[in-house]
């Protein structure tokens, strides 16, 4: 995961390339652990975890 978007950067909607913000994988793991520890009466429909400063959520 450390190499995604690194180097020349990720292609942006305007055609430019930009190094996008990142966060440690451990941060996403904490979210998964939190969901796993929720009581059986709770339901999580979806979770989107992105680095602060991402231009578009869910762009992929």
Oligomer: single chain
Estimate percent helicity.
Answer: 10-25%
Biggest sheet strand order reads 1-2
SS class: alpha+beta
Number of strands: 2
How large is the count of helical segments?
Answer: 1
Shape: elongated
Would you mind describing this structure in some detail?
This protein is of the alpha+beta class. The protein has a domain at 1-40. It has one helix at 25-36, and strands at 10-11, 17-18. A two-stranded antiparallel sheet has the order 1-2. A hairpin with a 5-residue loop joins strand 1 (10-11) and strand 2. It is elongated and about 45 Å long. The two termini are 13 Å apart.
Which structural traits does this protein have?
20% helix; two-stranded antiparallel ribbon; single chain; alpha+beta; elongated; 60 residues; 1 helix; 2 strands
Give a quick rundown of the structure:
The chain is built from one helix and two strands. With 60 residues, the chain is of the alpha+beta class. Strands 1-2 form a two-stranded antiparallel ribbon.
Topology (SSEs and partners):
Blueprint: E1 10-11, E2 17-18, H1 25-36
